[in-house]
Amino acid sequence: MMILVTGGSGSGKSAFAEQKLCALSTGRRVYIATMIPSDGESRKKISAHIQKRAGKDFITIERFSDFGGLVPAGIRESSELNGNINEEILLPGDSVLLEDLSNLTANEMFVYGRKEDILDDIKKAAAYVRDLVIVTNEIFSEAAVYKGKTAEYMRLLGGINRELAKAADEVYEVVYGIPVCLRGRTDEKIIQQL
Looking at CB atoms within 10 Å, which of 98, 137, 165, 174 has the fewest? Predict the structure, then answer.
């Protein structure tokens, strides 16, 4: 199952995505952290996210680029690994939270120069794991006009968001802490926990 969760900055989208994933998961819970700790503000955000998911049994993988590289080249079942699970690969029974697509896209475009592979990498992972919950940002609600590389980034992220929304089983926009179901079914129990 693939679920896309979007919303503005501070909307509560990350908390909702975590709760959604925890409600779905039966196997490993894998948190893919995409923010590069480049300054004090990013380190503070990372620390806050670590505290929020404490006690939820997440395995955290820091992955700033090449999300598709987490899917092993040869399909293997966890039983074939004889208990030697490499935490830097995904397994078919995993429930995965990608936090977040906006950072991953910026990393790929501005740091690694791999922007053509982002959508394919995500679709590859979604087809491989049990559940994939993707957090992304609503970046087009501002009245500001951007040019150059920023406008190119916004077009790229917008296009990826559209394609993922078409492919996702469920799509939510979190507005002021309230998840609005745009596609799929609403889980009232999770919404009441927010």
Answer: 165
